[in-house]
Design a protein that fits this description.
By secondary structure, the protein is mostly helical. The chain has one domain. About 75% of the residues lie in helices and about 0% in strands. It is built from 3 helices and no strands. The radius of gyration is 18 Å and the shape is elongated. About 0% of the residues are buried. The mean pLDDT is about 85.
Length: about 70
């Protein structure tokens, strides 16, 4: 048998409360991808964070991509 609305609310409320709290603290420029990542992380399916080296490489690639895209 399925869970009642009250039972589901007890499970979801803390997650949503933490999510909204993080949104208010971090204030991401684009909140949708942040929320998706947060929820994926909360159930253990999120991607591992990038290392400093990977972040630098990603920034370089994005810059290069934008340069090529504008040509």
């Amino acid at each position: 048998m399925g869970k009642s609305k009250k039972e589901i609310g007890k499970i979801i409320s803390p997650v949503l409360e933490k999510l909204v709290n993080r949104l208010l603290v971090i204030k991401p420029e684009d909140p949708i991808p942040y929320m998706i990542q947060y929820l994926a992380d909360s159930i253990g399916e999120g991607a591992k964070p990038l290392s400093k080296k990977e972040s630098i490489e990603l920034a370089k690639l994005r810059k290069q991509y934008n340069s090529l895209k504008s040509k």
